[in-house]
Amino acid sequence: MVAMRLKGVLADRSAWKATRCSIDRAMGVIGTRSAVLILREAFYGTTRFDDFAERVGITEAVAAARLKDLTAAGVFEKSPYREPGQRTRYEYLLTEMGNDLLPIVLGLMQWGDKYLQDDGGPLRVTADREPARVDVVGQDGRVRSAENLEVRARNA
After folding, report:
1. Residue 156: pLDDT over 70
2. Domain at 21-151, CATH class
3. Which of 19, 26, 47, 116 could bridge 91 with an S-S bond, Cβ 3.0-4.6 Å?
């Protein structure tokens, strides 16, 4: 088994619990399939409500609920627009907080391509025409795996 090493006060796992867990809190914001797929679409350039619902394949009620939750959490901001002869509507634009979710969305795609697609998946993400991937990288720029990582209490 490959695992991160718990250090300091965390070494004795029976002596502490993961209270105020950042992973738990993040899942509270983006932990639904529809929320992650809405984020995928936002990274693909979708900004309008009807397009999110159609492209993700969810009902308008689900799209409205997820966009409301993601906006309230600060992942999106609403920006008004108006087509000629139509009422004012809103686009949903990723905030800095939302843009910072790119590695998570791409990491899920990368994992799904590797383990859930017989052909490696239908899409490729590239940077300067070279394959791009999400990795854990140390300060020195080297890719690290779980066995190379340590977890410490912030205040210890």
Report:
1. no
2. mainly alpha
3. 47
